Amino acid sequence: MIKTKRFVLEKYLLLMISLLFFGTAHAEKPLGHNLSAISKPRAAANFTLEDMDEEQVRFSDYKGKVVLLNFWATWCPPCKKEMPSMERLHQGLAGESFAVVAINQMEDADHVFAYTGELDVEPTFTILFDKSSSVSSSYKVQGLPTTYLIDKKGNIRYRAIGGREFDHPKVEALIRRLMKE
Fold it and tell me: Peptide bond preceding 145: is omega within 30 degrees of 0, i.e. cis?
């Protein structure tokens, strides 16, 4: 029990440091669009988390699709700034073998529901809740937002730390290339 409390406290402190760094130094900085290739792609960890409707969602349900897996929180300014581009990407690739999955860190569904309702563009992609940060730990998330691009076989191929314009033509071209593999 003490180890679990320490883990949660460490994650909370890490998230607060992310807020201070990204929230002050980078709040007005325009978002980039580059994703870093993973030199040795590795299998994405499977998990089961609740969505906004308290339904259980397994990551394995997305096998056969390219997945943009985003870790975020409502207090994170670059997370808020990149969310509209994630929604545009989600809408632009609707019906194709692609999914956007956003994993909220340590916040409750009521708070996130209210937050997303106040955004200029309300997200329609899947939002899941990692209340204990166990999934972010298994993905080695060290700051928010962190995003992984996972291929149809379930391998992590690209990563981005910090906010991005995910509907940028270069990102969409990368996703389309992965969908053809």
Answer: yes
Note the pLDDT tens digit of each residue in 88-140.
999 999 999 999 999 999 999 999 999 999 999 899 999 999 999 999 999 99
Structural domains of the chain, with CATH: 2-180 (3.40.30.10)
Apex 167 CA angle, 161 and 172, nearest 5: 95
Tens of pLDDT, residues 132-159: 999 999 999 999 999 999 999 999 999 9
Listed in sequence order, the DSSP H helices in the chain are: 2-20, 77-92, 109-117, 134-138, 169-180
Rounded-to-integer distance, Cα 109 and Cα 138, Å: 22
CB burial of residue 55 (10 Å; 0-12, 13-18, 19+): exposed
pTM higher than 0.90: no
Q: Which of 151, 129, 173, 136 is nearest to 62 (CA)?
A: 151
Kindly provide the residue ranges of all beta strands, DSSP E only, lying in 48-133, ordered along the sequence.
48-51, 56-58, 66-72, 98-105, 126-130
- Point out which residues pair with 156 in neighbouring strands: 42, 150
